[in-house]
# Entry
Amino acid sequence: MSTDLRTLLDDAVVDTTLDVEAALSRGRTLRRRRAATQAVAVLTLAVTVGVGLPQALPVTRAPIVSSVPADAPHPLLVPVVDDTTGALTVELDVADLPDALPGEGVALAVRDVLAVGADGTVVARALADDAGTSGLHVQAPDGTLRQYEPDVRITAAAVAPDGTIVAVGVRGRDGVVVAVSDGGSATVDLGPDGIDLSGEQSPVQLAVVGDAVDLLVYEEDDAFGRAQLRRAPLWNPDERLIIADLSAATPSTMLFPLAAPDVPFLPDDLVVGLPDGRSLAVVVTGGDGPAGSQSRGGGAPVVDGVHVGAAILDRVDGTAVAVGLAAHPATGEALVVPMPPGPEGLLLDGVALHATTGGALWAITTDPSSGGRLHRVASTRPWAQPATATLPRAPDRPSGDLPGGAVIAPGEVAAIRTTPAPLGDGRVLYDSSIPGRPTSLLAVAPDGTAVVDGPDGLLLDAPDGDDAVAQIEVRQLWQPREGADGPGVAFDTDGNLWALADRWWSGARYPDLVVHRPGERGFASVGHVRVRHLLGVDAPDVVLHVQGDEVALVGAGIADDGTALPLRRVVVARAGDRIVDAPVQRLPGPNVIGEPSGVRTRLAVYGFDAELRGPFVPVDVVAGRPDLRTDAIPARATSLDGGIVLASPTLPSGDQLVLAGAPDGSTLAQVVPPPSSTCSRLCDDSLAAADGSIWLLRDGALVPLVDGAWRPVEPEDDAASDDGP
Amino acid sequence: MTDHDDELVRFLRAQHPRVAGTLQLILGDVDVADELTAETMARVVRDWRRIRGLSAPGPYVHRIAVNLANSRFRRLAAQRRALARHGADEDTHRDHDTADVLAVREAVAALPVRQRECVALHHFADLPTDAVADALGIRPATVRSHLRDARAALRVALGDDVDLPADEQPRRRMAHRPTTEGNSA
# Structure
């Protein structure tokens, strides 16, 4: 008698029982964890740029001046309790936020963040088409995304203290001032005869001065080889938009010619603004100069509110003048430091300058033949003796290191107040013998410690005058892509130095979040940060941002499908060393971070759940010890949602260390010979096979394969005997 | 327990045996199927607000299960490779079933994965071909083609023991199965 198929299938399956409570519990856990996964703080917008579209205008990138504090009330803040660690995390839920701005047919990408308000409001410029007229994009802290004045090409923007957004740009060829307040916008057309606000010829910036906003335009006067800063009030809370006659705006007292008449250059960048409203213009060259001249320059970072910058001005005769600028955070007084070129016949290839609140001014010079040199060019409150100054010509300066005495001759330029002396000890703190590697000064800690990206790693120099320069073994800072600016380094309030290091594992490159603590040597790895996953596959604008004890990445990019991702601020760690957003990613090889060295290796091992997320578990292991017991891996970490922990680093001896975490919190490990070609890696995430031993995590227990069968390890045998499994 | 929870629990109870059986047929491993069924149920809980508003929540749940099964297949492939290298017997669990049951399991397990999925979802879980297509992300015509091929293969494997009309339509489940509320496809 035949039986229908359904009956046969019914008979073939085994009845199982639903554990309702378990399903409810696990489901709710998954819901919380998903909220945590989605919890990235969206702080800015996506704006458009595509292949063939105009590049971003050379407007200075606004510093991230604010972010949403973790403990602040926020409509999208989601408290998440980690079931594994019990830690409370507060993040922004972006589940309902738009992922991209409209831009049909155009690859979207975050480009220019123009300003960030104190409440987290982000203002960005969009370049949606060839005309770049997609207007001003504003994202409120609640995720609301709005576009204003879509027919205006925005050049610069600022957020006034009362939240009003003020921007300038061009509509067609006419200058436009835009104010956005309470969700609405107003514009003032300045007509075709005003100052060029396109930013194409003259850098334009807005500066918040007290509760008002000023417009600053940097212009060069070709006839006299002078540069000037034109300043005009633009907005204040009483009069709102001020229709300023910009063409008649009196050049501010900050007018200063940076170069002698025979040093022609076109300004390429401009940084303005100080916390107290005093302004300083910093010119970073890089634009096209007249025939025979070339200009190059470095960045213009902000340290403790001090705007600093540097420029190298190449003369038409082939010599160079390097110029550094800094401003005192309290008084706004400018310091101008002329920096001579390198040895005769060599042009400086980079200058960076930093100032600290203590008054020290630092400079890095690099030339391609002799490597980098770090100079402390001013050290003892040079602001105290303001004086007028001008720039010496290169032939007037001796070649070689920076001089230690007065180098600024008083007289010619009355508008610039600076100091004639002293300008520091001029000592060379670091003199690399490795040529060719660009060297830059990355950051200066609140205590004055300077961080230099040297050819052999990061260098630290404390301000106490100690000649010893600590070198930290971060060989290479991570970059989003070859040649791109990386997220840099950042200090937290405790003086810990955070960086993203470039790591390699199994042929793959990934960013490793590392931290250096005062008094310790070297960096400790905190964990692999999924930058591309979090911020986009091509994140052009990644910034390491430390606020309080939060270490975050700010950036955005283009997703795999070509759509833009919103710019996000993702908290990746806290000062306590723990990655709070579990931004870990499955690596192509074993799930291990850390490079064994010596006999003791610190590994970072993590487990995965079904969504490739998991806790980060640092483990100390002793190489070459088959009976090693390591720091216990938390039980939950090893069996998180069915995930497992496996590790297989290669030891200095060439042997392979197979490490696995057991659900009871212990770790199992054994040292095995180098893997054979048939099993050169751990087999997926269910098995660990290197020397012929196989481990399977099944039903929450680590089970070895013995004589062809899976045999659970009894607790007393858990200590990974000398014989191995 | 709230009304909201009551509705959820009723849905879970209705879906569980169907999902469990479907996964058993697809995976050929009761333990793994049970594990993935639990995971499917957990995801239903996680996404309940959304799922309860769907016009056809049952097929959607089966889609979750099939996706989990496919992920599992990838792991199993690695496991099988490793086991093969070491000569271990993959099947470690016991069976005390009848020869007929074993024959059906073997026959279903011998089907290509896609055919197996179609058979499980259509002939066991009672999903119409459109819903099967939606769950598998393929066209209904492709589902019907897979079903034809699968039935032909099963007919060869099981011989006259199985009644497999070419135009067989899904029928109501056997009486001992729980009802399938919420599974309106």
